[in-house]
Write a structure and sequence with these properties.
Strand order of the largest sheet: 1-2-15-13-14-12-11-16-17-10-7-5
Radius of gyration: 23 Å
Family: Belongs to the MT-A70-like family.
Organism: Penicillium alfredii
InterPro entries: DNA_methylase_N6_adenine_CS, MT-A70-like
Pfam families: MT-A70
Helix content: 25-40%
GO cellular component, one term: nucleus
Length: 515
């Protein structure tokens, strides 16, 4: 997947960078490409890892048929997508009468109604007006042409494809045993032993063949500046078929099911099984499986029961606290990354520590996101609204809808501004002031941005890499600063980033891509 590095998925943005129009498939395609880092980039972290080469990779050498297929896979640059919406969805789920609507509104907290009516909806309307005025001078569509899935194949065949379906990685890996019958897996009780497993290093010059998803244990890395091809055998021992995936340059992933139903036992426990606590990032982006009854009924992807909200919140807090750079404590990794310090922002090394959490439109998820960020030492500084539109710029459903809203939100915090780290195993109660903030009563305390994008297939969000870089990681000279990023609950891989979750390979399956 090369040749796209000079293009952009941002179709429009205003001068203030508060309003964006983004093309979803293009954003994900561009996220597969590696843009070379500044010349000063420290490669030590990769050089040491490259010395640990898995013997399993050597099995792929000499398999000319698979190597030829590897070259074919790398030529695929276009992501298969659903057809862009040409008209909004019918409002069949909304209350039919004023009395019915009033009855539903009466059950909503006044604070929640005020948040959407007085804060979010005017913001979205203004953002859409800005795009209409600045972008649509003619009859320009709000998305680029798409490679559309055939009607009979809206979801590509995924039978037996580990990355294309939601599989319970932890239960699969429990079957694998090592010396002393101690499993090296992603299950809860084995987090410590898993984190000590050496990383699996992929080759970009030959197909990387694995007999089973069981072999993708712990951290898997592609240290090359070229795309790697991953070929994974079926779960059946006698299966000769392989599922094929692309692994973007400089990317790493941990294919695991995060233990969300149980709280962290101690501050020393690694919140991400398979990833050591000394691995830290400038940006942590999370898309949690929030409790959602309608989504659970639909069966598109798994979510957590309401009874486990507390444990999920604590897990998010732990990930943010452990894996973000600490600006206030004796953090060796952060000090090393900024040792040349005062000119770091102009010399190419980012000093940011950003945490971002996708939330639903339910009040409790926004509250949980605020708590997780603040308790991990972040100051909530921004809220981004993704408004889903038709290809001519209409919201996909009624903006004032009660049951279905055409937008989702991303809550963003920055470390080192008003936050102090805490023990992630302790339950925290928000103060009245923080409660007022997450309720949207003081929206001036946060920067608001609107991102419009025509939606795609189920569970596929636009990649925010390009927008994140433009907002948080741009130097005064206009070049992108060097930074590290982690996406948790990811459904695709991103060049230069780490990804964690049981669906990290989903949209990197070769069947989603065409030449």
């Amino acid at each position: 997947m090369t040749g796209l590095q000079h293009e952009s998925a941002i179709l429009f943005h205003n001068l203030e960078n508060t309003t964006f129009l983004l093309d979803t498939p293009r954003s994900l395609a561009l996220a597969q490409d590696w843009k070379p880092a500044p010349p000063h980039q420290n490669q030590d972290q990769w050089s040491s890892a490259q010395q640990t080469i898995s013997a399993r990779i050597e099995k792929s050498n000499g398999k000319s048929r698979k190597d030829e297929k590897k070259d074919d896979i790398k030529k695929k640059q276009h992501l298969l997508s659903s057809a862009p919406l040409t008209a909004p969805y019918p409002s069949s789920t909304e209350p039919k009468t004023k009395a019915a609507r009033a009855k539903v509104l009466a059950k909503m907290a006044p604070r929640e109604r005020r948040f959407h009516v007085e804060c979010i909806q005017p913001l979205v309307r203004h953002g859409l007006d800005v795009i209409h005025a600045g972008y649509q001078s003619g009859e320009r569509r709000w998305c680029l042409p798409r490679r559309v899935l055939p009607d009979k194949d809206r979801e590509p065949p995924s039978e037996g494809v580990a990355g294309a379906i939601d599989i319970d990685i932890s239960s699969v890996k429990k079957k694998r045993k090592y010396d002393g019958d101690i499993p090296c897996s992603s299950s809860l009780m084995d987090a410590v032993s898993s984190s000590r497993c050496p990383p699996v290093i992929l080759s970009s010059t030959a197909a990387n063949t694995f007999d089973s998803v069981l072999d993708l244990d712990g951290v898997v890395r592609n240290p090359s500046s070229e795309t790697a091809v991953l070929m994974v055998g079926g779960e059946e021992s006698k299966s000769e078929s392989f599922s094929e995936y692309t692994v973007p340059p400089k990317s790493s992933f941990v294919l695991c099911t995060l233990p969300l139903s149980r709280p962290l036992l101690s501050p020393e426990e690694d919140p991400i099984p398979g990833m050591t606590s000394d691995q830290q990032f400038n940006l942590i982006l999370l898309d949690p499986p929030w409790p959602n009854r309608s989504v659970r009924r639909s069966g598109h992807y798994s979510t957590q029961p309401y009874s486990e909200m507390s444990a999920l919140t604590q897990r998010l807090r732990g990930i943010l606290y452990v894996h973000s750079y600490d600006h206030t404590h004796d953090n060796a990794a952060y000090k090393q990354s900024t040792s040349m310090d005062n000119n770091a922002q102009t010399s190419g090394q980012s000093r940011q520590s950003i945490g971002a959490i996708w939330v639903t439109n339910a009040e409790k998820t926004r509250k949980a996101a605020y708590e997780s960020l603040r308790d991990a030492g972040f100051h909530v500084c921004e809220e981004w609204v993704w408004i889903k539109t038709t290809c001519d710029g209409q919201p996909i459903s009624e903006l004032e809808g009660l049951w279905r809203k055409p937008y989702e939100m991303l809550v963003i915090g920055r470390k080192g501004q008003g936050g102090g780290g805490i023990d992630t195993t302790q339950t925290q109660t928000p103060t009245p002031s923080s409660e007022a903030d997450w309720a949207g009563l003081y929206p001036a305390h946060t920067t608001k941005r609107v991102i419009a994008a025509v939606p795609d297939v189920h569970s596929r969000k636009p990649s925010l890499k390009e927008v994140m870089e433009k907002v948080f990681f741009m130097s005064s000279s206009g070049s992108v600063l060097e930074y590290s990023a982690l996406e948790v609950f990811a459904r695709n891989l991103t060049a230069g980033w780490w990804a964690v979750g049981n669906e990290v390979l989903k949209f990197n399956a070769q069947e989603w891509w065409v030449a």
